[in-house]
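job 3f2a | input accepted
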Amino acid sequence: MAAGFALAALYHLAALAIPAFARVAYAPTYPPLRHVTFVTVDSLVAWLFLLRPRWLIWPYLLLTLQVMQGHGVRVWQTLVHEHQINWIDAITVLGILLGLITLLIDRAEHFRRFP
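job 3f2a | predicted structure (115 res):
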């Protein structure tokens, strides 16, 4: 999971550093500050996945909701209206859900060991 978030941070960093990549990967209205925000968030989550503090599940749940509201809605709309899969959105949704599942499993195992 940490590697996935690190790759997401690099993807947004590339969009900031390489204007030609940003033009291909994002709409012209996508603000650079949003890239900065996601470089920061994705880097922080990558680091936290290495540490796995017990409280990580709560901010991660908020991040999951945000990703589902953005990428999840776009996956659904693209599938329904264009009968296609937007792979970046689909991979993002699957990745964030996989992260949530791993944190839920970690939490359940912790409570099994320390009731």
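job 3f2a | The chain has a mean pLDDT of 94.
job 3f2a | closed
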